[in-house]
User: Fold this.
Amino acid sequence: MSPIRFYLSTIFLSTVSFAQINVKKVTTNLSQDYQSVAVWQNADKEFSVSLMAQPMVTPKPKQTSVANVFVTALHDGKNLALRLRWSDPQINDSDKLKSYSDAVAVQFPINDNLQPPAVIMGHQGNPVHIFHWRYQYQMDVKQGSKREIQQIYPNMTVDMYPQDYKFTGNIPKATQEQKDAFLGGTAAGNPKSYYKPQGIDELMAEGFSTTVTRPNPQASAFGVWENNEWKVYILRPLKYQDGSSLQEGGKSHVAFAVWQGENEEVGGMKSLTMAWTPLLLMER
Assistant:
């Protein structure tokens, strides 16, 4: 099948109706309790979403190991909480060179909840709102700051940058601004290079290679790895003035992507859903 015909079939798939994720309403304040085991006992049954290797944009993975992500959701009238579970035999961070973080993303339409755009990151004039958790961010949150080179490579030695000398002697201690000048991603303003206190990125996109990071994210996230699987909890407000908005008693759509760090998955190298999944926010 040609790329154009495949893309058109993808747009068609984005409007097909499947069984939906039912989001029950709870009386508890999810902004405080969305990670509580007891809260999730009130949720509807877990929903299995099929994933496949990203087939549209190079570089494409030859194969991926995550075939399903299992989704559970709750809302409290103000916030939506998602619990995402998938198998992963190894926990992965992207602290060192040639290492890649485990990650998951959740995507919502912005303009029309009932007739969403192409499922792969929307298209021009019809954007999507993406919530992207990475274990890398969580490790920084655990520490309370972005990890520094000396923490990642504690036995390193340098002979160029005086701010990194183990014993500085009479050289004044460098400011953080001076240190950042020697960190390529930070100096270039790459949003992935900065500390994420909520453990998550909020992104906007209107198609391939158009992703931009939203400033001041309102969402938060946290992951737990045990028994060879991830459980990642994502909390977002129902309503955004300039993003995706959800309505109690209303329907929307959602899509998912997962990255396995041990498979060197990053960027377009991922497992993803090739169709939107309907989402219903129940009134009770």
